[in-house]
Amino acid sequence: MMPLVPTRQALQLTGLSAPTLREWTSRRALIPADVPPKNQGSPAQYSWQTILLLRLAVTLRDRFHLELQAHRSLFASLRRGLRGRSFIALWDKALALHGHDEWLLVDAGAELLRQDAVVILLDPHLLVLSKGFAL
User: Fold this and answer.
1) Cα–Cα distance measured from residue 46 to residue 28, given in angstroms and rounded to the nearest whole number
2) Where do the H-state alpha helices sit in the chain?
3) What CA–CA distance (Å, rounded) separates 14 from 8?
């Protein structure tokens, strides 16, 4: 069974405020929780993949000033792509975002990019997750 963390821990791991997390995961359903809250007052549950996506969204918003809603299909594509990957396999990788829902995992030190891309190094995010999920 995949380990899940509740909303309180998701807030700590992503650095998001409670209203923003609720907005992104429920109201706009940009990156839905893995297990939605059962009723008002109960916490949602999040996998490490979803927390990683939320952290990537924070980076795209804060560092690159991207409007996240316009990249909904990208988050859905990343969610599907991360679902089958092991946590360990993502170390020393970078995520190259090419637009819309096109992305590629590349070695962090490689210069294999043949077209423009937004590149996000995954190790800093994985380090936080490894502590938060005890992975």
Assistant:
1) 17
2) 7-14, 18-22, 48-62, 72-83, 123-132
3) 10
* pTM given for the model: 0.91
Task: Place 108 in a pLDDT band, splitting at 50, 70 and 90.
Answer: confident
Question: Please, which residues have CB within 8 angstroms of residue 26's CB and are 6 or more apart in sequence?
Answer: 32, 33, 36, 44
* Cross-strand pairs, 35: 45
CA–CA dist 101, 23 (Å, integer): 21
In whole angstroms, give the CA distance from residue 89 to residue 105: 10
Backbone angles phi, psi at 48, to 5 degrees: -65, -35
Q: What is the DSSP string of 59-89?
A: HHHHTT---GGGGHHHHHHHHHHHHTS-TGG
